[in-house]
Design a protein that fits this description.
Keywords: ATP-binding, Cell inner membrane, Cell membrane, Kinase, Membrane, Nucleotide-binding, Phosphoprotein, Transferase, Transmembrane, Transmembrane helix, Two-component regulatory system. By secondary structure, this protein is an alpha+beta fold. The chain is about 50% helix and about 15% strand. Bound molecules: adenosine-5'-diphosphate.
Length: about 270
């Protein structure tokens, strides 16, 4: 892939073709680089809990005598197994989402109802840290969209789990639904630690974390936001973030607010 076509001096068709071809090669190379990086990162993320698991089992086999000691080791092993399970689950979700619309179960559903349900879960998640949660429906009528309801629920739950995770005790998390220019706009904002500007361009990358050490304790996989972005895009939408360190963060998911007929018209080849 390192070969490039020579681009002649003359601005003729062949030169333009060579330029286009070279640009396509560069794109392909970048894609391959990303895939290699991803496989490397995924292996690393799975190897860490596996190494801990192996170490603990070896220690237990060699030194533990008392049932209490075995129990402690097994409990700790269980945590690592759960961690690996979460990573694998997230990797599968991501792979399905990247496969595009075909892997989604697209049906009409009520976004308003979905957010009511998600809001109740946000309450529960926030309880332990005394985080106040709010649901703001700026539209009085029910918003119905075409999409994979279960997957979209996951999008909002990932954002809410992060909001709660990265907000200190007594803070607040707010979910807002609005419709702007034919798009449904769901914002999850928190009064948490925020994200420094230099990290913002990377947070949707797989396994990217602002604070690597903190993440292991929180149990996050580093794939949550990659899943959010991929699923929003698979629905023809997008996600934006705004943050001020020390004040809070807000993520906004935009989804095309189209009915079944419009959806079919726009996705004819995929339906
Ligand atoms: P993780 O499992 O680490 O939460 P994510 O992909 O969900 O993985 O998020 C990537 C990183 O973005 C997190 O590690 C964290 O540093 C940052 N982040 C995500 N959401 C927030 C938020 N609401 N407030 C502050 N930082 C956040």
């Amino acid at each position: 892939l390192n070969r490039r076509l020579p681009v002649g001096k003359a601005r003729d068709e062949i030169s333009r073709l060579a330029e286009t071809f070279n640009a396509m090669l560069a794109n392909l190379e970048e894609s391959f680089r990303k895939i290699r990086q991803f496989s490397g990162d995924a292996s690393h993320e799975l190897r860490t809990p596996l190494t801990i698991l192996k170490g603990e089992t070896e220690v237990a086999l060699r030194w533990a005598k008392h049932p209490d000691e075995f129990r402690k080791m097994l409990e700790s092993s269980m945590e690592e197994i759960d961690r690996m399970g979460r990573i694998i689950e997230d990797l599968l979700t991501l792979a399905k989402s990247e496969a595009g619309t075909r892997s989604l179960v697209i049906k009409p559903f009520s976004l308003s109802d979905l957010l009511q349900g998600v809001y109740l879960q946000a309450n529960t998640l926030g309880e332990a840290k005394k985080i106040k949660t709010y649901l703001n429906l700026e539209v009085t009528e029910e918003i119905r969209l075409m999409g994979d309801e279960l997957r979209l629920r996951q999008v909002f739950l990932n954002l809410i789990a992060n909001a709660v995770n990265y907000t200190p005790e007594g803070g607040q998390v707010e979910i807002t639904l609005a419709v702007v220019d034919g798009e449904a706009k769901v914002t999850v904002s928190d009064s948490g630690i925020g994200i420094p500007a230099e990290h913002l361009p990377h947070i949707f990358d797989r396994f990217y974390r602002v604070d690597k050490a903190r993440n292991r304790e929180d149990g996050g996989t580093g794939l949550g936001l990659a899943i959010v972005k991929s699923l929003a895009e698979a629905h023809g939408g997008r996600v934006e973030v705004a943050s001020t360190p020390g004040e809070g963060t807000s993520f906004t998911v935009f989804l095309p607010a189209q009915g079944p007929e419009e959806w079919l018209a726009n996705n004819n080849s995929l339906a």
